[in-house]
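Field: sequence (string)
Field: structure_tokens (string)

Example rows 1 and 2, in order.
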Amino acid sequence: MSDVIAIRVSRHLKQEIKELDISSDELRDSLDKLVKQKKLGKLVKEIGIFRRRMEKKTGMTESAAESIRWDREHGH
């Protein structure tokens, strides 16, 4: 199922889209990538907040390299 999203753009942008022959599929793909990037950014921010909370509670800190090394050594 799909829905329609209508957005208002400047005439200049609309003309450039037309001149560059950018398809609706390309626009849809770009929008999908933007949503994924924003979601990933939000997760990274939440992980940072969680990590700082854990550091305060446990008093332990480790580098990203140490964390990755541990994951690899333990088959994660």
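Row 2 begins here:
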Amino acid sequence: MGQKMLLNLPEKDLKKIETLVKTGEYATKTEIIRFAVKQFLYGQERIKTLEEMTAKLQRHANTRKETKKEIEEAKEETRRIISKMGK
């Protein structure tokens, strides 16, 4: 099982939590807090994963740009060589 913690919340947040329990959205205040903590922690993990994926995609895009540039340079060099051959 987990460990007990003392938690102080602003009155307005506590009232919102109590309303969620009264309306039946959640069974207890503890359930809401657990849910919120899990959402925060998993959200942090998702953000890290998205940042890693974004970095990977950016590297891939840069590689594609560099490859396109190299192809265009090779085409231009080929044109220069062919034009010299015709002289």
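free_text_note (row 2): The helical segments are 11-22, 29-85.
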